Amino acid sequence: MRTDDDRPRTPDRRWAGSDFQDPPRTGGGVALCGACHAAGRCRLGVQRERLDDTGNAWFHVTCPRDQEGGPNVAHGGWTAAVMDECLGHVPLLNRTLSVTAELSVSFVKPVPVDRPVQVRAWVDRREGSRWYIAGEMSLLPGGAVLARASGIWVARDPGHFDRHEKWLAQQDSAGSP
Ligand SMILES: CCCCCCCCCCCC(=O)SCCNC(=O)CCNC(=O)[C@H](O)C(C)(C)COP(=O)(O)OP(=O)(O)OC[C@H]1O[C@@H](n2cnc3c(N)ncnc32)[C@H](O)[C@@H]1OP(=O)(O)O
């Protein structure tokens, strides 16, 4: 009987012909990752995104109730994931595929669930293939800062995921230690 562990690992047809630099987007302009494409929405609660003409990227986000940690506040993992997602969309909004190499998050205040918050993200600088990106999450409508993040995203060519599949197959064929 086939199990999840021996399913074929080649990317399925959702990615066929994709250049990974122009992923599917929601009506609110939100770029969708693989699992969220299947769900038809960003499961983290990112509802709108846009890049303005000064280089700032703006995101409207609501923490879903199923990401609650303490009473009525977000799990810290949700906050970190949203900052990874939003900051990682900045290269995509500039038509560049990248992956997160480093991410640092400061949790300034608890993030309320079921209440819209805003994330602003921007490029601090670029060096070689590295994008140094920062951002902050703030409460609406007052603008109190809830979280700050910064990190490094590394630009990748579209062969990144194929190379990973080959690397993984090599690991598997090497057998257990
Ligand atoms: C698809 C549509 C979805 C659509 C929508 C989805 C959007 C999702 C947004 C969230 C993004 C993610 O979570 S991505 C998922 C989480 N991240 C990952 O899976 C990444 C896993 N790590 C890796 O693949 C690798 O370690 C890399 C690519 C980061 C680095 O690989 P590498 O083999 O070392 O690459 P290499 O060519 O030697 O180095 C490239 C450049 O990166 C620098 N570099 C390498 N590692 C690091 C590091 N830890 N911190 C800083 N810089 C580093 C090197 O100095 C070099 O700079 P220079 O000399 O070129 O200047």
Give a short overview.
The protein is α+β, with helices and mostly antiparallel strands and about 180 residues long. The chain has a single domain (about 20-165), classed as Thiol Ester Dehydrase, Chain A.
Shape: globular
Measured as a percent range, the helix fraction is 10-25%
Number of domains: 1
Poorly predicted tracts of residues: 1-11
Largest beta sheet: what is the strand line-up?
A: 1-2-4-5-6-3
- Helix-strand topology string: HEEHEEEEH
Largest sheet: 6 strands, antiparallel
CATH topology: Thiol Ester Dehydrase, Chain A
Q: Give the N-terminus to C-terminus distance in angstroms.
A: 26 Å
Computed Rg = 18 Å
What is the tally of helical segments? 3
Q: Supply the helix-strand structural class.
A: alpha+beta
Let me know the average pLDDT. 91
CATH class: Alpha Beta
Going by CATH, the architecture would be Roll
User: What is the number of strand segments?
Assistant: 6
Subcellular location: Cell projection, Ruffle membrane; Cytoplasm; Membrane
Keywords: Apoptosis, Cell membrane, Cell projection, Cytoplasm, Fatty acid metabolism, Hydrolase, Lipid metabolism, Membrane, Transit peptide
Organism: Actinomadura rugatobispora
EC number: 3.1.2.2
Layout: helices, strands, pairs:
Blueprint: H1 34-39, E1 46-51, E2 57-62, H2 76-93, E3 98-107, E4 116-127, E5 130-139, E6 145-155, H3 160-173
Antiparallel strand pairs: 1-2, 2-4, 3-6, 4-5, 5-6
The structure holds dodecyl-COA.
Dodecyl-COA (DCC) is lined by residues 20, 23, 31, 33, 84-85, 88-89, 99-102, 127-130, 152, 154.
